[in-house]
Design a protein that fits this description.
The structure holds 3 protein chains of 3 kinds. By secondary structure, chain A is of the alpha+beta class. Chain A has 4 helices and 9 strands. In chain A, the strands form 3 sheets. Chain A has a 3-stranded antiparallel beta sheet with strand order 1-9-8, with no helix packed on it. In chain A, strands 2-3-4 form a 3-stranded antiparallel beta sheet, with no helix packed on it. A 3-stranded antiparallel beta sheet of chain A has the order 5-6-7. The N and C termini of chain A lie far apart (70 Å). In chain B, helix 2 packs across helix 6 and helix 5 packs antiparallel against helix 6. In chain B, a hairpin with a 7-residue loop joins strand 3 and strand 4. In chain B, the strands form 2 sheets. Chain B has a two-stranded antiparallel sheet with strand order 1-2. A two-stranded antiparallel sheet of chain B has the order 3-4. Chain B is mostly helical. The radius of gyration of chain C is 24 Å and the shape is globular. The chains are: A alpha+beta, B mainly alpha, C mainly alpha. Chains in contact: A-B, A-C, B-C. The interface between B and C is large, with 47 and 56 residues.
Chain lengths: 193, 253, 426
């Protein structure tokens, strides 16, 4: 009895019986079953429908005067909306890109040059830079100044001084979007996200 | 073998014990045909939309449905523009603003559908002390489910002679105890359906119950679809594993 | 990428095994571990229980990433899981129905043990550890049911915690301590959540002890006789691994039926009403797997000597499980398996019917005939355990046992081939 049992096992392990196809199928089905079961459990950790519903913010730009700046919340982060003055636009466009730590043309950072829309989180260690309120220190380039470790951003939100490695992100950069995640729904309104 | 079947039957009976609970003195609930019945059931979109209309125009005067968001209405066939229009038709409390005040603003798809009262106490004050229950889960929260809610909505009749109907109460055939605080909410043609279906009481009841069942169990169709695939997979797997088991055990038997 | 040639794999395995004999251990437990060759499908329920424990822990941890254990927010957080979380409805229904499935499996496993004498020498501790697991399961399930904070959650918690007030002198103090307040409330919910998360891992540890005890002497078998040599046993793998896998798929079909097509059949509609401390539901009913204990609890409607009816009910309800600890000594039969016990084989089914009757009693309001049946059934349960089992073991004449598993199997089932002797007690 034990011999037959042992023989049986030898045959199972030898891999040379016709029953192999059956066991291969059984193994494959088992494997598929396990993976198919695990996926929904893991997917529960992805953003839920209510989180995704809040992933989009509409902003009315009409009340923002030239030279004024507004902060809105988007996906839990502050977004700086700056209605740039002609001087600020010129200062942003006249920069020699090759001198920048994170070279980027101003034209690549805006859809309409009088509206700069960037994520207000310092790319060094995540503080919120000053410059949105009247009276704030804007740093020596007229943009934004991060009080935590002294990063200075220009009127296009690009890093000019201080420890931050990258320019202030456009909405969508953190999500590796191929283009900025905001669009103008009219001349005076945008949807972010 | 017989013993095995017997044992399984006994276990099944044990698990059914709650279902076999003695019924109190109640009129039996007539069973309705629902589009979501059975293992292949789905929600009839047209019926659910009519039901939402009934809820919105009649029931929502007293009953909140707090677990529904405007964006959920896409599941019963409304387009994004349609549900945005529905949402902006409501005023929603938001705030506090920078002055510290709460304020009203038009609804957004991400908002929950606002109820008629700011809190339970206000609801009771407006309804002689009775609290109109939230309807998001009512179909799952009552024995008999959809048939029960349908029965309530269509079960109003005159109290039989000799029945002691308390003041302010209404006789209802299927409500436990037969006295319900809610007056009959439905009457023929109380709403005009956009798709032209005649709004009889049974029709409105049927449609609002379809809507409410969806509200209580919005993922039913996902559940049925996944269940079908899982069952198919398991039947195949059981067959394969059984064959493998027989093959492995063959020399031993 | 690791080289897949047998030589490289074998070297890696040898390196690990020399330091932590993991593969060696698996090989011994699966390939060499002698298992009786005649195990029936009633022996599938042990591995099924283990799998259910894993399923419940996995689904529970996932639910825990989304659930909020606060009296204001718990109910709504569960609804959010059902509606907004990807596959949240699936994980919730898996966990909810999994609790019922787990108990069904464990009860069958337990009754298998009762029928085939699996609790008898030398498996007394194995059995006792199993009863401890059952107690931990009941505690875990009870606390888990409170977490959605529905009407039944709240009021079941109130009724069951109030039981402890029956303890003389210190009772009410203990209840306040359990509640963390003057009624079931937010502090109660928080501590139940913490304990509900903790206990399954305690169960896991006790299950490991259960397996260690099992492997000391190996499984019992339907004949109830020890295996005497290699002709009686087969290696666990592949024979019982494949049989367990097959049993698992059949079980999953039943489990899947509930999850996908009748997810609320075994539950109470009242639990979809948010908890209201100011209003008690008409009928407070526990989940089906707790109904027999509930029935025993309620059946004592009269004081016994100086003990109040409430306290007596509590004592008897808990005793119905504690008495199982003593089963190996209550049962005087020299023979394990009911197959060879002509009287016990039928009396066993009386117990099963009794437990189902208790379940029916527990499900119904305690009025009229329900009370009478409950009292008779409660009496019978203790009569069965304390009187019938010891007596039957002494008085019945067991049928002759087969000489060995091998001979019995070869000659077609449990037929005899030569005189067998009843199992001698050491």
């Amino acid at each position: 009895m034990a011999d037959v049992a042992q023989q049986n096992i030898d045959q199972v392990h030898s891999g040379e019986t016709r029953r192999d196809f059956l066991f291969l199928t059984a193994g494959a089905i088992g494997g598929i079953g396990v993976v198919a079961t695990i996926w929904p459990f893991v997917d529960t950790l992805n953003p839920a429908r209510d989180t995704l519903a809040l992933s989009s913010t509409e902003v009315d730009l009409a009340p923002i005067q030239v030279g004024q700046r507004l902060t809105v919340a988007w996906r839990g982060k502050p977004v700086f909306i700056a209605h740039r003055t002609p001087e600020e636009i010129k200062a942003a466009e006249d920069v020699d890109i090759s001198q920048l730590r994170d070279p980027q043309k101003d034209a690549d950072r805006v859809q309409k040059s009088e509206w700069l829309i960037i994520v207000g989180v310092c790319t060094h260690l995540g503080c919120i830079p000053l410059g949105q309120k009247a009276g704030d220190d804007r740093g020596s380039f007229g943009g934004w100044f991060c009080p935590c470790h002294g990063s200075v951003y220009d009127t296009s939100g690009r890093i000019r001084q201080g420890p931050a490695p990258l320019n202030l992100w456009l909405p969508g950069d953190a999500e590796l979007a191929s283009k900025a995640l905001y669009k103008f729904t009219s001349d005076a309104a945008i949807t972010i996200g | 073998m017989a013993r095995r079947v017997f044992a399984t039957a006994v276990l099944g009976a044990a698990m059914l014990a709650p279902a076999l609970a003695l019924a109190a003195d109640e009129t039996p609930l007539p069973r309705q045909q629902w589009s979501f019945d059975g293992v292949f059931g789905t929600y009839d979109r047209a019926s659910a939309q009519r039901g939402f209309q009934v809820y919105k125009e009649i029931c929502s005067v007293c009953h909140p449905v707090k677990h529904l968001h405007f964006r959920d209405l896409m599941d019963i066939g409304y387009s994004e523009d349609e549900l945005k229009a529905i949402a902006t038709g409501y005023q929603v409390t938001d705030g506090p603003n920078d002055e510290g005040q709460m304020f009203q603003r038009p609804g957004r798809p991400s908002d929950p559908i606002p109820g008629p009262f700011p809190n339970d106490q206000a609801a009771r004050a407006a309804n002689n002390g009775a609290l109109p229950p939230d309807q998001s889960l009512i179909v799952k929260a009552r024995p008999g489910g959809p048939d029960y809610v349908y029965g309530i909505l269509t079960g109003y009749k005159d109290a039989p002679t000799g029945f002691n109907l308390l003041p302010g109460m209404n006789y209802n055939e299927f409500f436990p105890g037969h006295q319900i605080a809610m007056p009959p909410p439905l009457s023929d043609n109380a709403v005009t359906f956009a798709d032209g279906v005649p709004a009889t009481v049974p029709q409105m009841a049927h449609d609002v119950v379809t809507f409410l069942t969806w509200a209580a169990e919005p993922r039913l169709e996902d559940r049925h679809r996944t269940g079908f695939k899982v069952t198919l997979f398991l039947v195949v797997a059981a067959g394969v594993f059984y064959a493998a088991k027989r093959k492995i055990w063959a020399p031993i038997h | 990428m690791a080289d897949n040639r047998p030589g490289a794999t074998a070297r890696i395995i040898r390196w690990i095994d020399y330091r932590l004999p993991f593969v060696q251990f698996l090989n011994h437990e699966l390939n060499e571990y002698p298992t009786p060759r005649n195990l029936s499908y009633w022996w599938n329920y042990g591995s099924l229980s283990g799998i259910m424990l894993v399923v419940m822990i996995a689904s529970g941890v996932i639910l825990a990433t989304q659930y909020t254990p606060s009296a204001d927010l718990a109910f709504d957080s569960v609804e959010r899981i059902m509606r907004d979380v990807n596959y949240g409805w699936l994980v919730r229904y898996v966990h909810m129905n999994g609790g019922s499935m787990f108990f069904a499996i464990v009860y069958i496993h337990l009754f298998r043990g009762l029928y085939y004498g699996s609790y008898k020498n030398p498996r007394e501790l194995l059995w006792i550890i199993g009863v401890i697991i059952l107690l931990l399961l009941i505690a875990t399930a009870f606390m888990g049911y409170v977490l959605p904070w529905g009407q039944m959650s709240y009021w079941a918690a109130t009724v069951i915690t109030n039981l402890f007030s029956a303890i003389p002198l210190v009772g009410p103090g203990i209840v306040t301590f359990l509640w963390g307040g003057f009624t079931v409330g937010d502090p109660t919910l928080h501590r139940f959540y913490a304990l509900h998360y903790l206990l399954p891992f305690v169960i896991l540890a006790v299950v490991l002890l259960h397996l260690v005890a099992l492997h000391r002497h190996g499984s019992n078998n339907p004949l109830g006789i020890d295996h005497k040599g290699p002709q009686d046993t087969i290696p666990f793998h592949p024979y019982y691994t494949i049989k367990d896998l097959f049993g698992l798929t059949v079980f999953l079909l039943i489990y899947g039926f509930f999850v996908f097509y009748a997810p609320n059949f075994l539950g109470e509609p009242d639990n979809y009403i948010p908890a209201n401390p100011m209003q008690t539901p008409n009928h407070i009913v526990p989940e089906w797997y707790l109904l027999p204990y509930y029935a025993i609890l309620r059946s004592i409607t009269f004081p016994i000597l100086f003990v109040s009816s409430k306290l007596a009910g509590v004592i008897l309800a808990f005793s119905s499980i504690f008495i199982l600890f003593f089963l190996p000594w209550l049962d005087t039969s020299p023979v394990r398996s009911a197959r060879f016990r002509p009287i016990y084989k039928w009396v066993f089914w009386l117990l099963v019917i009794d437990v189902v009757a208790l379940g029916w009693v527990g499900a119904n309001p305690p009025q009229g005939i329900v009370v009478t049946v409950g009292q008779i059934a409660t009496f019978y349960y203790f009569f069965h355990m304390l009187i019938l089992i010891p007596l039957i073991g002494k008085l019945e004449r067991p049928r002759p046992l087969p000489s060995s598993i091998g001979t019995a199997v070869l000659s077609g089932g449990a037929r005899l081939s030569g005189a067998g002797t009843p199992l001698a007690k050491p």
